[in-house]
Amino acid sequence: MNMKNKKKQTFTREIFFAQVKNDYYSSLFTFFYSTMFVFLTIEQLIPAAIITFIALGIFIFGILQILNRKLTRSVSERLEIFKSGALVNQEDLTNLFKDVMNIPKQIFSLQSFLYTIAIFLLSLFYHYFPSINLDWRSTLLSYLACFFGIYICATGSLRCTEKICNRYAEEIVEKGINPDIINTKKNFGTSLSVKVIIEIIVPVIITNVLSFFVLLQGYKPINYRHFSPYMQIFRIITIASASLFITINVCFNFYKTIKNELNKLKVSVKEILKDSKSEKYTRTSLANEMDCNVYIMNQILRKFRYLVVKASQVGKNVLDTTNQLSIISTTLSKNSLEQSTDVKEILSTMEDSNSLSKNIANRILNVSEGAENTKKEIESSLELLKQNVLQFEQINVSNESIISGIKNLCSQIENIGDVVTLINNIADQTRIIAFNAELEAVSAGNEGKNFHIVATEIRRLATSTMNSIQEIQQFIQSIQEASRKLIDSSQNETSLIKEETELSHQLESHFDTIKDTSALTFIKANNISEIVDQQTSSFSQIVITLKQISSGIESFTVSTKTISDTAQKMKELSSVLDRL
User: MF terms per GO, please (predicted)?
Assistant: First the structure.
């Protein structure tokens, strides 16, 4: 029995049994509602009822159960994990929430499609089955009536599945989903505007269309039979009453939906007014705009309670500060009496300070004279240092000019080396040509003897030229090496000169600082001397001031009493904050 109850609690089975109950009653209504349009005889009604309810059983317990299981299996398994407490990741909870809220729409769309096909086939069966054999006009009316019935069935199924899914969604939202999704989407179920269209506007339109066809048929034959005017009027009134009942029912269901959502908002507001520190929040599924408003109210309530807690903490801090202030004011009151005694001691100390100030004035005069002499010596040393810096700079410029000249000489020597290399190449080519000429002269015999002598001489001269060029190249390399060493030596000397120049500039800067400091010392010494002179004349003013301080101490005692009263008022304010 326990296993059976546990099995019934799965999401898939809850959805299925909710649909079975809704589809069963809706199908009964649809069948009898459609029969009122065509006035089936007993002979026609029995086979029609048998075939209809057999098809309904196959559809509900066969096709619908299979499709329902495929649609909800994955979500049902994840919900079981959620119930066990193993699903805690916010992203997984958010995805599960979205999938749960999509189930009613998927079932509504699928069920509407399948029922539409089913009633179409059933209408054809009513027309072609021999025991029923409806005419085409009656078949069309039957199809329209059945279409309205299955639409009501689909909307009822949507309400049932939404109720179940919303219950699970409330638990998931309470567990914690990503709050950013509220900013991108205002509802995750069927919005109120869509509900108005589905549950009010569409049923009203369909009932009006059905009424139009019923009135259009008027007193024409129905199902190959003629009826009296009273029977036709009775039929029209019955159909209109049934349509009115359906319309009132769907409107009432929509009213209940709105009322429930408004009650959630009312509960949220009551929670705020009832207990500002309570951690209880109104559960919401975010199915429509009002549910989203409840969610926002919960967020506001959380922040409001956070502010209340902070206000309570501030009140406690104010109370602690007030107590400390009260202690401090008492201490200050005691200290003021002690300060009155200290003022008299200060008066006697002032006389000793007068003689001490005269001694300080004489010492300051000596410091001023020493600072003046130091300033003159530093100015002389600074002038000599500037001359040395100038000489270093001139040497540096001259040395850089020499380095530039040596670099130009190296460049020209490199150009000469290029020319010598070119001449060497020409001599080498000449030697090869002369050698070839010798070979030609030898092959010519006596006729080429003189030419052979000339070619041999040319080759000898070319070889001699190449040897001389090699010696020249060696000299050039020696000159270039010496030039490089000279440049490196000059650059090192230039670096040393620059360092000496920089050091001289730093010394010059330090001497300037010392000179300025000496001048400033002289000026400050004079200022201190003047201040000491003024100090003596200020002692009389200090005595007057001390008397005023004594009077101020008495006023301070009065102020301490005021502080004590203020502290008491702050205690009362702290108590008010703590009661929030």
Answer: transmembrane signaling receptor activity
